[in-house]
């Protein structure tokens, strides 16, 4: 007879089939209550991995669940279902990850609902924080939604700080209300797949719904950032940090100051592929002109665009890209097309009157961009701008025609 004394199997389907077997470094356990979930995490030994399988929806009613001591926790639902972890009372987050610990969320929903307890003005009900060197959060199929803070709350729904790592492979972050849906400060965020969408900023938010700041790195390899809004950077706000766009799509975001898709302040932006499209301005009384429908960049930012598409964005000036005179832009084998400016610079608007901050190579493509009117500069003046090498344009034989690059300059 086969010996099964060391194994306690339960039946499941596909990758959700788990055992209660203890191995040298990994165990798994089924839970159905808040108390069982907390106990399973608390009993995980330092440096060990535990898979926690939800067999039903769970209501979280106590303080934040802390994950620390270098443990690795994986939370998933039983039999390919997607059970909810719902916070109904108290102002605390769902999880706080510190001290080199790791949390992977797979087939679960992280959400909050209105409860009887009053939420303090500076606190978010629900969401996740991860902080400290080598602390990790991995979203792989989970949904984070309906977590809320008051207008005075300054805490992002997912808050990544102080050397932590956040990787999103699949799933979504949606319908949350906070100062940002994802905030990354002195940390790293990699977006491989999934959706960050339809989140709404609270009253204190001037910046984008995905905020990257303080020497952080954001690598976007896939996924979508869409239907977000802000004043500076409707989709992504980058300050003193680096944003590498390698794939994916940033679209249908809005701003009422600058950078409807992406806004950079003393930031570095490298684009090799991907799409920034269909971002648009939202007028707000007394706010004036909106700059940069696709990208708005100021304060010594650098942009190196070697591939991808910037298309169908709208703004008052610089519908595709807006630059102040301190920003340097390089464009290689990329396409800037179908952007529409209400005033000038359908493709690009720069405040540098001699275009000294632009380097545009032959393979760059401008097509079907629009502005208030076209300007046909004389050939001898065009010849002065040797840093703009492409002849591809929406109109005339060069891109300095106001449709593609603003041609309404003080010295003309």
Structural commentary:
There is one protein chain. The protein is mainly beta. It contains two helices and 43 strands. It folds into two domains: 9-205; 230-412. Helix content is 3%, strand content 40%. The chain is elongated, with a radius of gyration of 24 Å. The termini are far apart.
Descriptive tags:
412 residues; mainly beta; 2 domains; 2 helices; disordered N terminus
Strand content: 35-45%
Helix-strand category: mainly beta
Assign an overall shape: elongated
> Compute the gyration radius: what is it?
24 Å
Number of domains: 2
Q: Level of helix content?
A: under 10%
What composes the largest sheet?
Answer: 23 strands, parallel
Summarize the structure.
The protein has 412 residues and is mainly beta.
Topology summary:
Layout: E1 26-31, H1 34-42, E2 49-54, E3 58-60, E4 65-67, E5 72-77, E6 83-87, E7 95-97, E8 102-105, E9 108-112, E10 124-125, E11 128-131, E12 136-145, E13 148-149, E14 158-161, E15 165-174, E16 177-178, E17 182-185, E18 188-191, E19 195-197, E20 200-201, E21 210-213, E22 217-220, E23 224-226, E24 229-232, E25 236-239, E26 242-245, E27 249-251, E28 254-258, E29 262-265, E30 268-271, E31 275-277, E32 280-281, E33 295-298, E34 302-305, E35 309-311, E36 314-315, E37 321-323, E38 328-331, E39 335-337, E40 340-341, E41 348-350, E42 358-360, E43 365-367, H2 379-382
Parallel strand pairs: 1-2, 2-5, 3-6, 4-7, 5-8, 6-9, 7-11, 8-12, 9-12, 11-14, 12-15, 14-17, 15-18, 15-19, 16-20, 17-21, 18-22, 19-23, 21-25, 22-26, 23-27, 24-28, 25-29, 26-30, 27-31, 28-32, 29-33, 30-34, 31-35, 33-37, 34-38, 35-39, 36-40, 37-41, 38-42, 39-43
Antiparallel strand pairs: 10-13
